[in-house]
Amino acid sequence: MQATYAATLFDEWIGLGLRDVVVCPGSRSTPLALACAARQELRVHVRIDERSAGFFAIGRALESHVPVAIVVTSGTAAAELHASVAEASQADVPLLVLTADRPPELHGVGAPQTIDQHELFGDMVRLFEDPGTARLEDSLTWRELARRLWNRAAQRDEECSRPGPVHLNAAFIEPLVADPLALPEPLVPTSPTLAGVVDVAGLEDLRVLCVAGHGVSSQMVDDCLSMNWAVIGDATSLGTISYFDSLLRDANFAGRVRPDVVVRLGGMPASRTLQERLREWRVRTIGFDGAGFVSDPDRLVTDRRRGVPDPSREPKADGEYVRLWSEASTQVGEWLSGLDRGDDRSHEMSVARCVVDVSSRRGVPLVIGSSMPVRDVEWWAPPRTSPTYSNRGVNGIDGVVSTTLGVAVGSRAIGLVGDITMLHDVSALVDGFGEARGSCALVVADNRGGGIFSFLAQRAAVDDASFERLFATPRSHDLVGIAHAFGHEGVRVAALSQLRAALDAALDRSGLSVIVVDVPTRDENVRLHDEWNENVKSILEGIQ
């Protein structure tokens, strides 16, 4: 009966569009593992570390745009998924989290691998189901259970405003291995409708600044640009106005581009400077939920709208306002392009620009780590043209290597991380691509510690020894040697020309290649950022 139950769930999910399942080895989850492995329609990825597996599943979901299932056994295996569930929840990534469990009679009696898994992930999941052990008399409800979970994960349910993870806690009894019987009949297909484009009145000839974040598509950006909205965005946004952080650091320019209206789509960029300017301006702010949850930690959104703006119904805004932003961005870009041509030095900002350039030139998706990489891409990189991802739900460094591998499966991807981020997810190297194929170039900016802390108040407030021990946490591990130890390619480079060559070579072969880039000290990195920001201020002085 349990085998039939598990087979029915996967049969229904396959009909709805499931293609990837990530499986972690375990005994109690045997019915689920065997059920998905029996279906040729599914690509099954086996990974031994649940924490890495959860972020690998996020990568697959980001690339495929459909829910990905992850199967784990009971106990701490289920608990290991907490970080990835939190990220998926806040980043609106659709996951089917399937945790096996002991039956009720084995709880509270000291049975091994048993914890309380009821609502284990709390409000982080869009739906929790704990139907108990499978019974024949309930067989007509199994497909409905599967569909209910899928629809909530994929936001195909009117009760769910955001896609995200759902959790099925499936209790199984021994024996765990059996052949499935005939499956219950399929359900009648349904096609739920969701909110679409909406009208925005009263923005004609106004200075409109659109802030695009996580979840905003390139089509949404194009639509906003067609209405003469100046669009700035986070590192994952494609086609937005670049270098806005350095532009807004100049108080005179910030005053000149004060908008009449701010439009918010999706998450919030990483720029603290932008947040400060938005608080300072405090103008009418319209938030649209069609790109996902609108981050508003400062509670600046005054109007909330369903869906996304409709350019066919909205008059043009002030084109001169867009020109002002575009001219400033273009001149900064020309200056940076001159540096690219004349300076082969590798530092964190130039590495970010180089990686984005190769990603766009080769048409390869890019996955960006948190802390400094996502900021350097957002602040200093040219506009992205290839799909760009980053775990910006919770903004942690957890699982970024695993997410990159998930995106690269069956194709190619570039990852940009720091050395601490790579070490934090070194278990991703254990399985690599596993049985799947793909090409992944992982670029590691090796500044020997957590570089972002050098930009924070702790750097000045804490003595050097304590700062290094408690915050920077440098590690002396040989990162290239670690890659080799797990059977992957690895190389260390010290110049941008070497990085470009290494990236091209990595993308032309299969498997994981780790490219470690020597960059200046963390304190020197702060100085270089300050120097570039001062140069931008000089450029702005010449713009009328």
Q: Briefly note the CATH topology name of the largest domain.
A: Rossmann fold
Beta-strand residue fraction: 15-25%
How many domain modules?
3
Number of extended strands: 19
CATH architecture of the largest domain: 3-Layer(aba) Sandwich
Q: Count of helical segments?
A: 21
CATH homologous superfamily assignment of the largest domain: Thiamin diphosphate (ThDP)-binding fold, Pyr/PP domains
* Helical coverage, percent range: 25-40%
CATH class of the largest domain: Alpha Beta
- Biggest sheet, spatial arrangement of strands: 2-1-3-4-6-5
Q: What spatial form do the alpha-carbon principal axes imply?
A: globular
Average predicted local confidence, pLDDT? 92
* Uncertain stretches of 5 or more adjacent residues: 191-195
End-to-end C-alpha gap: 75 Å
Major β-sheet profile: 6 strands, parallel
Radius of gyration: 24 Å
Tell me which oligomeric state these chains represent: single chain
Structure overview:
- With about 550 residues, the protein is an alpha/beta fold.
- The protein has three domains: about 1-170, Thiamin diphosphate (ThDP)-binding fold, Pyr/PP domains (Rossmann fold, 3-Layer(aba) Sandwich); about 200-325, Rossmann fold (3-Layer(aba) Sandwich), CATH 3.40.50; about 345-540, 3-Layer(aba) Sandwich (Rossmann fold).
- The protein is about 40% helix and about 15% strand.
- The protein contains 21 helices and 19 strands.
- Helix 1 (about 1-15) packs across helix 6 (about 140-155), helix 3 packs parallel to helix 5 (about 80-90) and helix 3 crosses helix 14.
- The longest helix has 24 residues, at about 320-340.
